[in-house]
Structure formats: C-alpha cells, structure tokens
From TrEMBL:
Source organism of the structure: Inquilinus ginsengisoli
Protein name: Ketosteroid isomerase-like protein
Annotated InterPro entries: NTF2-like_dom_sf, SnoaL-like
One Pfam family from the record: SnoaL_3
Residue ranges of the region described as Disordered: 110-129
SnoaL-like domain boundaries: 7-111
C-alpha cells in the first residue's frame, strides 16, 4: 500500500510541475470532501474552491520537487509527509489520500515553511525519525 500511495503523491507533484490541470483534477476525490491550505492563502474547503486554486497556480507552474516522502498508513487512508523544494525554499507538506475504487485520490494538501533541511539520503517509505 505504501508504494501505491507514494506513486499517487509523485503523480500529484508531476501534475503540479507540468501545469497539468486535467491530471490535477483527476487526482482529487470526486466523492469525498476535500480541503487545501496553500502557504499564505485562506483555508479552502470544497472541491470547487480547491480546483479553482489549482487552476490559478497551474497557469504558471512552479519548479517544484518533492523530497523525503514517507507514508503513514491508516487502512484506506494514507498520509504522505514530504519536503517541497521550490528553488532555495523548503516547505513541509502533508498530503492525505483516500483509497477509492479508481485508486488513491487526494482529499487534503497543506504546505508551509519549515526549518527542516532536505536529508542527504531519502528515508524508506513508512518510516518516521
């Protein structure tokens, strides 16, 4: 399960880096309530508000890389913690996925400033230190 949740997380960052609105839309749940907290933005709740925010961001996609991803598994819910690297900036991110019939779908994303440096060696999935 951890590998498939990590693959969904990687697909999220690939869509973000490419500015791929269709892929981003497909990654988010159509069945469950969703929410998103972008750095410096108000709390966004509901699919319409969240998708509007991504459409705005994806017009000029960031040069973003997700690093040091690790998964916390809770049955049909996976929480992926990672570091987003955007240029010299680092953000701590929490991405929550729910397993649906079509696969893992995102229900929450939150990113904010962190003092954590990117580790030299990535940690194995499912470990927290």
């Amino acid at each position: 399960m951890a590998e498939s949740a990590l693959a969904a997380n990687e697909a999220f960052y690939a869509a973000l880096a490419r500015g791929d609105t269709a892929a981003m839309t497909a990654l988010w749940s159509h069945k469950r309530p969703v929410a998103c907290i972008h750095p410096g933005w108000p709390v966004l709740a509901g699919r319409e508000a969240v998708m509007r925010s991504w459409e705005s961001i994806l017009r000029t996609p960031p040069r973003i890389v997700a690093e040091a991803a690790r998964v916390l598994e809770y049955g049909d819910t996976a929480v992926v913690l990672c570091i987003e690297r955007i240029g010299d900036n680092r953000l701590a991110a929490t991405n929550v996925f729910i397993r649906e019939a079509e696969g893992w779908r995102m229900v929450h994303h939150q990113a904010g400033p962190t003092r954590e440096a990117t580790p030299q060696q990535p940690r194995p999935a499912g470990t927290i230190h």
